[in-house]
Amino acid sequence: MSYKITDYTKKKALKMQLEVKPSQRKGKKIDVYKNGKFIKAVGALGYMDYPTYILKEGKKKADERRRLYHLRHTKNTLGEKLALNLLW
After folding, report:
1. What's the gap between Cα 65 and its chain centre?
2. Contact 41, 30 (CB under 8 A)
3. Residue 27 buriedness (CB in 10 A; 0-12 / 13-18 / 19+)
4. Sign of the torsion formed by the C-alpha atoms of 31, 20, 80 and 34
5. Which of 8, 59, 71, 84 has the lowest tally of Cβ within 10 angstroms?
6. Which of 63-80 are b and which e, b meaning 16 or more Cβ less than 10 Å from the residue's Cβ?
7. 3-state class (DSSP) for residue 4
8. Separation of alpha carbons 82 and 41, rounded Å
9. How far apart are CA 52 and CA 1, in angstroms?
């Protein structure tokens, strides 16, 4: 199973001055780079993200899933921050 990086994620990465590529790490969606240097692999394969919810279930459902995602991810680790900003 591979993940196709969405335009949503590409635009968010560009704003953050990051580069995203399909992950080479097992079970992850994207690898995140800054100035060509690998930072972190984020997003678990098998789980949907905000742009995927919009495509499959509509914006209303996606907005609710985003709200819930933000409520349960509060550790502020680098991985969570990147996933939150790039995928949600």
Report:
1. 14
2. yes
3. exposed
4. positive
5. 71
6. eebbeebeeeeeeeeebe
7. coil
8. 9
9. 15
Confidence of residue 1 (pLDDT cuts 50, 70, 90): low
Domain ranges in the chain? 7-87
Q: Which of 12, 8, 9, 42 is nearest to 24 (CA)?
A: 42
CA–CA dist 78, 83 (Å, integer): 9
Joined together, the tokens standing for residue 69 give 């995602």
Q: pTM here?
A: 0.89
List C-alpha distances in Å: 28 to 21, 44, 60, 64, 66: 11, 5, 26, 23, 19
**Predicted confidence band at 60 (pLDDT cuts at 50, 70, 90)?**
very high
